[in-house]
Design brief:
Structural class: mainly alpha
Order of helices and strands: HHHH
Largest sheet: none
Shape: rod-shaped
Length: about 160
C-alpha cells in the first residue's frame, strides 16, 4: 500500500482531493488546512516549553551541575545553547503567523495549494526544530549524568 500522507502526496493532488472532499467549498477546504496548521503550532509550543524547561533547570541547578567537572560544564553549556537554538528556530520558522486569508484573491485551488505548501514547510521546520532540541537535551542529560557520576561531595552551599 502506498503512503498517501500529506508530505508524500504532491501538493496539487492533495489540494484537488481536499476540494473534492469539501465539494468545491474553498472555505471548508481552508478550514481543514487551518486545522493542520493549528496542530503544528500546538506541537511547536510544546517544543518551546521543553526548551524553556532547560533554562529553568539551569537556573536552579546549573551551578551544581557545572561544579562537578569541566566536562560537565561543557556539556551543560552546549546543551543549553543547542536547546535555545531549537527554540529560536521553531519561533522563527514555525510560529510565524501569516493568515490563510491572504490567498483568497487567487483561484480556489491555487489558494489551497499555497496554504498546503506553507503547512508542509512548517512541518519540515517543526521536525528540524524537534531534532535540534533532542540533540540539546541529550547534551544536557550527559552533563547531569556526569554530575551524578561524580563521587565527590559538594562543599558548602552552592550559590
Amino acid at each position: 500500500m502506498i503512503d498517501q500522507s500529506p508530505l508524500n502526496m504532491n501538493t496539487e493532488s492533495e489540494a484537488k482531493a481536499i476540494l473534492k472532499l469539501c465539494e468545491g467549498n474553498l472555505k471548508a477546504a481552508l478550514e481543514m488546512a487551518e486545522r493542520h496548521l493549528n496542530t503544528i503550532y500546538t506541537r511547536a509550543q510544546v517544543l518551546l516549553s521543553l526548551a524553556g524547561m532547560v533554562v529553568t533547570v539551569t537556573g536552579f541547578s546549573g551551578r551544581l551541575i557545572a561544579g562537578s567537572s569541566t566536562l560537565a560544564q561543557m556539556f551543560l553549556v552546549a546543551g543549553l545553547f543547542v536547546s535555545l537554538s531549537s527554540a529560536i528556530w521553531v519561533f522563527l520558522r514555525v510560529m510565524r503567523v501569516r493568515w490563510v486569508t491572504v490567498f483568497l484573491d487567487q483561484d480556489p485551488e491555487n489558494a489551497l495549494q499555497e496554504t498546503l505548501r506553507r503547512r508542509n514547510r512548517k512541518t519540515k521546520a517543526y521536525k528540524t526544530g524537534g531534532t535540534i532540541l533532542c540533540i540539546g537535551l541529550v547534551l544536557y542529560c550527559i552533563a547531569i549524568a556526569l554530575m551524578l557520576l561524580d563521587p565527590s561531595a559538594i562543599q558548602g552551599p552552592v550559590r
